[in-house]
Write a structure and sequence with these properties.
The protein is α+β, with helices and mostly antiparallel strands and 77 residues long. It has helices spanning 8-14, 28-39; strands spanning 2-6, 18-21, 26-27, 48-51, 54-55, 61-62, 67-71.
């Protein structure tokens, strides 16, 4: 089981702050593709990803118990 934390427009699109994914041993990129297909989250192509509070690469493997955060770009001035 992987916990996925969502922020900003991702949270607004789904209407939830987090999701539970009943998979493990998949890559960050595979998780993104799964969520894009299931929830139509096209914004996932443009987010930073953190796994267990450390930035992650698309090829990093996820395990049961991991916490994945998708962090959309922030602009300001």
């Amino acid at each position: 089981m992987i916990t996925v934390l969502l922020f900003a427009q991702l949270q607004e699109t789904i209407g939830k702050e987090q999701l539970i994914v009943e998979e493990s041993n998949i890559t960050v990129n595979e998780l993104k593709r799964k969520l894009m297909a299931t929830y139509n989250l096209t914004q996932l192509d443009h987010v930073m990803t953190a796994v267990n509070e450390e930035y992650a690469l698309p090829t990093d493997m996820l395990s049961s118990g991991d916490i994945v955060a998708f962090i959309p770009p922030v602009s300001g001035g």
